[in-house]
Amino acid sequence: MADSKFVYRFGKITDGNRTMRELIGGKGANLAEMCNIGIPVPPGFTLSTETCKFVIDHNMQWPEGLEKQVLDGIKHVESEMAAKLGDSKNPLLLSVRSGAAVSMPGMMDTILNLGINDDVVEAIIAKTGNERFAYDSYRRFIDMFGDVVMGVSHEYFEDAMQHLKDEVGIEEDVNLGADHLKTLTDRYKAIYRHHTGHMFPEDPVEQLKFAINAVFKSWNSSRAIKYREVSHITGLIGTGVNVQAMVFGNMSSDSATGVCFTRNPSTGADELYGEYLVNAQGEDVVAGIRTPQPIREMKKNMADVYDELCQYTNKLEAHYKNMQDIEFTIQEGKLYILQTRNGKRTGAAAVKIAVDLVNNGVVTKEEAISALVEPEHIEQLLHPQFSTQDVLDKEVLGKGLPASPGAAVGKVVFDSKDAEKAAEQGEMVILVRIETSPEDVGGMSSAEGILTSRGGMTSHAAVVARGWGKPCVAGCSDIVINYKTKTFTNGEVTVKEGDWISIDGTRGLVMLGQREMHPPVLSEEYDTFMRWVGTFEKMEVRANAETPEDASLARSLGAKGIGLARTEHMFFKDDRVTAVRRMIVSENEVERRKALAHLLPYQKEDFKGIFKKMNGLPVTVRLLDPPLHEFLPHTKEEIKVVAEQLGITKEKLARKVEALQEFNPMLGHRGCRLGITHPEITEMQTRAIIEAALELKKDDIEAIPEIMIPLVGNVREFVNQRSIVEQTAEKVFAEYNDRISFKIGTMIEVPRAAITANEIAREAEFFSFGTNDLTQMTLGYSRDDAAKFIPHYLEEGILADDPFQTLDKKGVGELVHMGTELGHAGNPNIKIGICGEHGGDPASIEFCYQLGMNYVSCSPYRVPIAHLAIAQAVIKHGERKNQDQAALV
Amino acid sequence: MADSKFVYRFGKITDGNRTMRELIGGKGANLAEMCNIGIPVPPGFTLSTETCKFVIDHNMQWPEGLEKQVLDGIKHVESEMAAKLGDSKNPLLLSVRSGAAVSMPGMMDTILNLGINDDVVEAIIAKTGNERFAYDSYRRFIDMFGDVVMGVSHEYFEDAMQHLKDEVGIEEDVNLGADHLKTLTDRYKAIYRHHTGHMFPEDPVEQLKFAINAVFKSWNSSRAIKYREVSHITGLIGTGVNVQAMVFGNMSSDSATGVCFTRNPSTGADELYGEYLVNAQGEDVVAGIRTPQPIREMKKNMADVYDELCQYTNKLEAHYKNMQDIEFTIQEGKLYILQTRNGKRTGAAAVKIAVDLVNNGVVTKEEAISALVEPEHIEQLLHPQFSTQDVLDKEVLGKGLPASPGAAVGKVVFDSKDAEKAAEQGEMVILVRIETSPEDVGGMSSAEGILTSRGGMTSHAAVVARGWGKPCVAGCSDIVINYKTKTFTNGEVTVKEGDWISIDGTRGLVMLGQREMHPPVLSEEYDTFMRWVGTFEKMEVRANAETPEDASLARSLGAKGIGLARTEHMFFKDDRVTAVRRMIVSENEVERRKALAHLLPYQKEDFKGIFKKMNGLPVTVRLLDPPLHEFLPHTKEEIKVVAEQLGITKEKLARKVEALQEFNPMLGHRGCRLGITHPEITEMQTRAIIEAALELKKDDIEAIPEIMIPLVGNVREFVNQRSIVEQTAEKVFAEYNDRISFKIGTMIEVPRAAITANEIAREAEFFSFGTNDLTQMTLGYSRDDAAKFIPHYLEEGILADDPFQTLDKKGVGELVHMGTELGHAGNPNIKIGICGEHGGDPASIEFCYQLGMNYVSCSPYRVPIAHLAIAQAVIKHGERKNQDQAALV
């Protein structure tokens, strides 16, 4: 290692650049990069990650040559700063920071003001004329060094401070004078000596060596190891160490410190946006002692420096091709840039900035799409929102899961019927339930928003709400709901029926009262941006929708078809459920057919409604999926009422309910298993679809039905159902003396279906991966029950993500991969898509693109997000080999 | 096709042999084979399956040359029989039968007596002097030919017969005289003419051509297609047609017909066993008109023919290397063998015959093991049985699933407590429940047998009963149980508490009263046979057992260890469940640990009991698996009682029960998910296992625990639990100042575990495939609910087998395959086994052997069956490449 390079300088002379993250860490690479493009950064040097590895591997022994390189590094900084470490006239102070290739909060904090000793503190006083500042810096340095480098608990130093304040009768730190702080410095040194057994090191180089070793050691601290474990960070060899000259914004009245964005992060407007404070340190701003000024004031007061700053912010934005969030310090009139990073922004700002940067020629459309707008930005734009201010300022009743984004305000109701009644009278309500079931859909649809105290991101409430773009906070366990008293409480505040609340489904918050909402207005820039996105659409986006309203919304948001229309949702509407129940309690096929005949006209009208809206676009209709018991009442009272409606005894109905009960409904008598044991259901649904399409054809409306068989696990199940569908369709064609063309395909949602996809593909025209159920079965997680352990798993790092939100690539993804490959092997012309919750998740969409799928289907409100995710995937991975095929969809 | 061979002769001149099943069908190949070894078979010829294909493909056009070959075939038969088709003196009659490569009941039935016409019937009368016989044969031929060949419904002929009987005032067919039958013959011809529009063909060759074409056509009859579909028979091209000389056992007093076995099929004794009837046709025996005589009488009455018969039966047994079931006919003193096939036999006979045939040098041990004893034979031997006679003769109350083999007799009880009480008083009871739950184990263990009206082959009742070798009939839906009145009924008979019933778990039958049982006595031959089997044991057999009694039984039946000890079963015993419940209702970890501490000594004693019995052999202990709510009461009354026991309010307990309730417990908070959220449970169980082993070590008993983590789906779950186990073990080692060695492995029962088995294998020492749960999740079938559709699926041919009985190779098997391959890839030293229900299923065992597994684990009573299945697999597939590794287990 003797000839190795351990130390990489930055400043006017710079050895590194942005590509060297692995070697010198992210922070080191960024500092070097800024220097390379002529940004005035306080000079310094970085010890490489390889150095860290060597030192750790050799029991903290430094490799030959490292010491000399560090000393040379110090000389480099001294020369550029025209100051000297430990000098009694013009002393240089240093900061020491860790910095691995990946940002890692588990590692060592910063050490500031390194280099102070008894001589240097005098020099600082002489130079700044500020004795208080000098001793405050000194005692802080001893505290930090003792705590972070030597492991002397910060509490000892705090105690000493408190002790002194008691002695002199002062309550606030800021009221301590220079003398007090000088005394404290001595006492801190004594504490240091007492706990370490050594004198506090006066030699700045020794201080630096200690600090560097402390950073190295922190790489293997249990906190850092745990962090890497939980975050699944692997393959890194160590951390870099950044040693940098300190600069001070509080040295004089021509010193200052500030933060700015290169554009307005709320609106995206092209203006420097930020705050600064004269003769101050960053800490002063944080401590709230003084109020910073808007950056535009700087233009008046420090015009030259302001111009210089603008020059650098423009340069940085152009270089990083993104709006920047910049920290700077002015020391005695000289401007230093301390840090730059991509700035956080609102959805509106993101889109405007992206479009502006493309129009200004700073970035290409590809760059704007991949780097400047995130799916969350688009999501933000599509829903009404509370302002950030409003949410943070006011009291929050409870936090739950951000189950469906957007803001909603309404009066509390606890019952679906009440919600419907209130809505009829024009009232705005929030439906508050422990959890929702299919019987609540009426109330949910009438409410402005939904709040549940139980259930996860894919609970019934969450899925339905997202589907409708209706704000929902789910699983808010902070509140306890009491249906009897019609109240809920968070233990402190009790909310009654009729009280106003506001829910923020984007952030998962519940607030008291009526908060102000901002409706979404889609800007011109949004249209422009989405047009650009559209040019990269190499995979079709469809929507999950089962009402004409949803279909219409989906189409307006850019859906190219319906990928999943769940027919069972239609079964709950109005008095249809009575017909469904009559079908279920039928003693024989004849009775069952009679009940189904009653349902036929309803279903046909449903399909007509959707087909009309989707005129000319395909509509995938999934045949009945849930187990029949979901349509039956469960409590004694409900059974009594329903039995009367059906004209049978309550005992008979109770027996039927009992007989249909299942231990694990998820794995029970549902999906195509129903259609196989009750072929008349499949016949009725097929008839409704085909009759609807034929009748619309007379009005020149083109319906393109794709009939989807659910829960197939065995090709013979599919063949059985396909033949019923085909025979029924032929019968209807004969009756109408007319034909339409339609497709028959299947869900791939049972693991066995993915494993035997080649067999199924030989018989089917399309596959739609139902990754909700596939996730449940592959992982063995019931999504209705998994809330009992998934949060714990996420906390412990056993799971990196909730698998119901982001596709589990290794497990479920492998089955999707197998299913896609085997599917194409069995039938090269098969059309393959996804219609689970993951169809709207950007990471999962990218995965589906890579697998060569033809389409994704998601909630209407996620359609634009899916468009963006596809464009990003196309730009990242290039066009696919089988693009021709995908284009055939 | 002109030069093709379409026709294969058999008789003294024979063209085919047993290897030609594909070409000339199974029946044709067998007839040829008998002829080849000099057995006197009535001569004939077979048209090949290729001929069938050609004719069907060419719209029933015969290929060039076929007619000539058929005519040559006729000449061949005429020459060997010294008779002539259609001859008016010495006429030859023929039979025509279908026969594909695989036996297929969906195809054409036999046509007998082909060749009769008005001339021939006179010749038969002249020859036999039996006019009645002649006309009976003639009218039967017209009926058969009309129905089978020409599609004239048999009913028309039946009507004519009835009409005639009414006319002449005769009630029974047998009382019709020759004249009546002659008249009937004329009327049959008229019916034939009326329905076909043709005269009945007088030309025997024409008759034959019609019959051959009818057989060809029957290949594509809807019945045959459906049969092939349901039985999943594919790859066959057509059926053969067998044309054979008729011989008559009723031609004279030196004619006879009979059936015999080469050995006694009940006992296996080496003696000719069967019946015969002089001057009779097989039909006479079936019709019950005359009673056949034991075959030993033949020795006295027809000594020469008897000797000849013995010569042929010996030859056939030696040739087919198996006990034969033979049909023969003697026509005027000449013996013909009509058919031979392997004879059905009892388990006892199978074993004796196998051992005898090996000792006689007829077969090798390999042949005896692979072909002469089936797993079901061994199973029969291990359980008490009702005689077949007894079961068939007496009234059966209902049929259910043969859930656990063996016979049981007892008084009906409907409650587990009652069963326990009765057993204490020495009474024999049958526990009758709608279904059983873990709380019933006490009663189940006290009962002689178990009968349930709900649940499948893997319901709780079935699994527990099989594990104990206790007879069980499950899912007997013929009966309705009423707990209130303490009765059950099949709609006709009502059985009260205290009534005697008998259940046959081998056949799934429920009978009234006390039937006689035969206890199992294992013969010397059994021991010999199993010793031979043992020499082929290239895969270890372990048992699933969790009590010392079961462990002991398993060891006595040849188990080489315990492959699955379910710890939760121990939790239900005695008053432990109270401690378990206390643990569950604990408010915090401290309380929970207190309750667990109370359980520790119980668990330790449990493990000691098993370890002692298995001294020196490995015991795989699975940590707690079921969801906690399984331990809690559910009805209001139970909750009240249990709340008192626990000293908490019933409201609190009810809330806990409510809170733990799950929608899909199968996919819920169970398995390692419990151990991860409640690490103290894993700690307690580990401590009990390790302390037990260490304490036994002092008494020189060697415990070899293998700790198994259930329901792992993610390697990080395994690592989490492994580290708790390891840390706890080290703590105990320190406390005892002693160590033992043990292994830590996991169940592979979640699809994701199989898919990511390489990752898991890198951390684990062994895998045990839990194919019960793996089947549930891979197919999406809840085994508690699937009875609602699996029977229908089996009926419709959607499923070939119940996947909970026979491993679904294509789906679940593919995951087991992946899991095994990936497991070996991740860790070449990993030990892999199976412990689901399939561990005792021969077909699944063969599959596991092929995959290279190291062991199977099954119920104690299935251990010998598994031994046999392994030996059969080894003989069939040869030893495995990785045999060294398997031997290391």
What is the makeup of the main sheet of chain A?
A: 8 strands, mixed
- DSSP helix fraction of chain A: 40-55%
Number of helices of chain A: 37
How many beta strands in the DSSP annotation of chain A? 33
Q: What's the rounded overall pLDDT mean of chain A?
A: 91
Major sheet: arrangement of strands of chain A: 14-24-23-16-17-18-19-15
Helix and strand content put the structural class of chain A at: alpha/beta
- Alpha carbon gyration radius of chain A: 33 Å
Given the C-alpha coordinates, what overall shape of chain A results? Answer: elongated
Flag low-confidence runs of chain A.
883-889
Could you tell me how far the N terminus lies from the C terminus of chain A, measured between alpha carbons in angstroms? 59 Å
Report the β-strand fraction of chain A as a percent range. 15-25%
Oligomer: homodimer
Chain pair sharing the greatest interface: A-B, 48 and 49 residues
Question: Brief description of this entry?
Answer:
Chain A has 889 residues and is α/β, with parallel strands linked by helices. Chain A is built from 37 helices and 33 strands.
Structural summary, described in words:
- Two copies of one chain form a homodimer.
- Chain A has 889 residues and is α/β, with parallel strands linked by helices.
- Helix content of chain A is 47%, strand content 17%.
- Chain A is elongated, with a radius of gyration of 33 Å.
- In chain A, 53% of the residues are buried.
- At the A-B interface, helix 27, helix 29, helix 30, helix 32 and helix 33 of A face helix 27, helix 29, helix 30, helix 32 and helix 33 of B.
